[in-house]
Amino acid sequence: MAERITIVIPGDDPPQLQGSPHLGRLQTHGEVVLHTDRPDSPEEQVRRAKNADCLINSRGSLKWPADVLRQLPRLRLFATCGIGTDAIDLGVARELGITVCNIPGRTAPLVAEHALALLFAVARRLAFQTQELKQGRWTMLDNVFLRGKTLGLIGAGHIAAEMARLASAIGMRVQAWTFHPSAERAQRLGVRFVDLPELLRTSDAVSVHVKLTEETRGLLGAREFDAMRQGALLVNTARGAIVDAAALVAVLESGHLGGAGLDVFDLEPLPPDHPLLRCRHVVLTPHNADQTPEGMEILNGGVVDNVIAFLEGRPQNVVQ
Fold this sequence. Notes:
CATH topology of the largest domain: Rossmann fold
Distance between the termini: 30 Å
Shape: globular
Strand order of the largest sheet: 8-7-6-9-10-11-12
CATH architecture of the largest domain: 3-Layer(aba) Sandwich
Structural class: alpha/beta
CATH superfamily of the largest domain: NAD(P)-binding Rossmann-like Domain
Number of domains: 2
Number of strands: 12
Strand content: 15-25%
Largest sheet: 7 strands, parallel
């Protein structure tokens, strides 16, 4: 008799897959082992995953560097509950023959809507004015009218395409930068492509939508922020490490940037003493841009679909 497949969810915290009806679809394909808390050490993380043939990384909450992957001799599939794959060392996964699958594009409308909400909140000083009123202060400060302003998109994937559509709908002009521009992509997105220096120099707001790679890590630092327009706004729903956090704090505190709306950070969860928390004109959310009931349904169904497809010999959404 063939050995039964083991599918492990090593740390479903915050809760995502626990209680999902989609998990029942995996029962006929193997034993499902779900841990509802995060492992408290790398050793515990390895212990939980050591016998896994398939591993589901719920919310991308756990990191899987080379030294951990090398201790998982049975692992054949790493399935992430989202589009990002920065939680795993892809090079070592490739070396070890581990297939990596993600869920591209399906939650793009949810993330783009969140990015637009952050942009509105920063433009209208919502977090700042709420705090002022709670402190008993009636502070008059100009808001930013977005219609007619230029939005610069860093990236041109599914989420950027949705963001372009939403921004155009409220009357913003949209331009974009990508590593791989083309006339066809520009027409499909309804934007014009420019180089990154021009985008930073001419945009009233910049929204980040690239994946985290060695090319994009630290893409926006002190030099790039200095090149942006006085009072420009920044939104980041991609990955925190794309932005130099110290440089961002500096330009916010100097007043050169008008504000920032951030769903992602260089350190997650955000420490209570993080310098960003002392900045006045920031709107912050805890990496939850796609965390709606609809989003959870999409992600949970998608990751289970990916596992089943792999086990049936027809892998899909393969990153490598």
